Amino acid sequence: MQRWLKNAGGGDAPGQSTDAAFTAAELSSKRSIQQTHRLLADGNRSPHHQLVSPLKQDLAAQKRNNNYCTRFRLPADQYLISGLNATYSKDAAADRDPHFLSQVPPGVVHLIGRVYLSQTFLAFESEERLPAPQHNLPVCKAVFPLYTIKRVERLNKGAYTSGVAITTCHKMEHDFFLHAEKNACEQFCDTLKDLLLKQIPLFRKVKPFMATCESEQIFQTDSLIDTRVQIGGLGLEFGYPENSKKSKDKSKTKLWKLYFQENGRNLTMIKLPTFGKLVRVGLPNSLRGEIWEASSGAMYLRFANQGLYQEILDKYKGQKSTSTEEIEKDLNRSLPEYPGYQSPEGINRLRRVLTAYAWSNPELGYCQAMNIVVSALLIYTTEEQAFWILHILVDRFFPGYYSTNMYGALLDQITFEQLVEKTMPILWNHFKRTNVELSVACLPWFLSLYINSMPLEFAVRVLDILFMEGPRILFQIGLAILKVNGEELLETRDDGGFLDIFKAFFQSIGHKEQVDNGEQHIKITKFNEVMLTAYREFSLVTNEMITELRNQNQLKVGAGIESFTKRTVIRNLKDTAMFSKEDVAILYDKYFGALYYASHEASNNAKSDSKMNREVFQSMLASMTVWAKAKHNTDNADVNAANAVCNNFIDRMYRLFTENAADNLLDFQMVILGMNEILHGDLMSHMDWFFQLYDQDKDGVLTSQDIINMSKELYWL
């Protein structure tokens, strides 16, 4: 389904080089090491495992692995090896600063849940959920990369209770008491031991990696690493959108230091209810980039691919593609009001991140709105951090948003409209009666993640919560904005009035207004009112619901995109010859159907997804005629001779169809004109066509051998 949606628009691959041929396989060679899924292959798994397993079991395992990776924000190459019920226990930090105890309570944990083990991670999620309106989230979620575990001890309390105690590189101990049969517990512990041994080569990379984490700065006295160089984004040099004093950065940083002291930091941080509270009140500017990275899972990708970002820049230095040309056009349109993007330093950073991503994902390349998102990220993050966060946003949070046909954004617009209809039927019916298009205002919200819609100081607050809670927060905020402005929206009669209401709202989103809070009236900003409304009234929207609605609407969006693309391609034809609209539509289906089903190996001579080579041309003919379906070579001489004649005839047709093609590739217009000669020509034009077909040297004369070849092939036909 995803492949169909991606290809529904056709056209060239945006990231494809216009200077030299570099394959995606070359680029991802380093990352592919992470994707081999062979870490337990030393005798533990059969080499024919995939062939032996029934399809149903394989699909179930794939779904289970995807859910596991999504739930804990892990790299997509992780597969679940084991999972047991367990009690997770952790003591409070020693020598705790007594201040702020109410804001950051001691990190004592004693919770029942389930512990999971994959080839690189140990993860835990509690059974207990947060109180409403956060009742869909667990009280505790912990992820420990195995390469951060420095010590493991077995815990045995009686004949029927066993477990493990791990100590991380930040000298924090975490205990897991396993609730399972003794054999299962033993197997879990043995597997953990084997996997830890495989992480030994990665241990030496942990310390240098931590040197790139801002959280180590605030523990300089007892830090494991040298942190004299400040780490961060453009904000360090050009300032942040939000005033540090006004946002109480110092107080927030103190609270985060206490949280790190109690619950770990960067790679080893666990997430308790306090984590969510600290994120929702707004992150301190200095830590914002790192918390984004840790919350989204981009930090694990950056660790696993250290140095890859710079390798991409070095490898493709000076190369050009359609994407790099588009990037150059958009650089000066990226948050032009921010001082950093009025200087060469900011523009160069933005250019490097966008071009590196375009080369790393040539199928997608670059799409407008990426520049807006990355320009916001770079204020708080380094280039490498922004590069990997962009990967998470494009590949996991919002698949298809930044493709050439933006099918993901269109899919989410349908999803959003369904949520509006479900939660605010009066408002939805008003939109339908007045023919107000919701997507006119809301599509830019989603594409730019609200960065282009509201002032930047509030947009980054949306990003804070987005990376913590996932894509559902965009829907909740969108619904809350409609709810807050509901009375005014019911007065609108056209799209213009609709847009004016939101323009005025976003311009005043920082203004304080009096809100009824039960027994008392309090003054809060419009932004905080939106966030309160999003959490209280639209808590029914979950990431699982969004995924389900996306899956339900994929066919509808795909069909709509395909229909639009088909009409556009046909409308742009210079000459439809003597074909009717219906006939052109049939030829379109045959042509692009052959392109779609052609494998990359069969089409590796083609430089464009909208043109076909000789092999794909035969596939198209085979979908329309019986004679083009060549049989497999056998020991039967007659069959092989017929295949040879068939291939010769198709070669001649292909050469004639591509006679004026500089790249020797066939496009849809050429097919229309070529088929018109065959299907709509008169007797004389058919004679001329066959003459050209066999006059290969173009001397205006058919030799006796040409006549013999024509006779053979016409007899075969």
TrEMBL record:
EF-hand domain location is 682-717
Q: Name one GO molecular function term.
A: GTPase activator activity
The UniProt entry, under InterPro entries, shows: EF-hand-dom_pair, EF_Hand_1_Ca_BS, EF_hand_dom, GRAM, PH-like_dom_sf, Rab-GAP-TBC_dom, Rab-GAP_TBC_sf, Rab_GAP_TBC_domain
Signal peptide extent: none
Q: Tell me where in this chain the Rab-GAP TBC domain is found.
A: 282-470
Q: Which key words tag this protein in UniProt? A: Calcium, GTPase activation
- What Pfam families would the database entry show? GRAM (PF02893), RabGAP-TBC (PF00566)
The record's section on PANTHER family has:
RAB GTPASE-ACTIVATING PROTEIN 1-LIKE, TBC1 DOMAIN FAMILY MEMBER 2B
Write down what this protein is called.
Answer: Rab-GAP TBC domain-containing protein
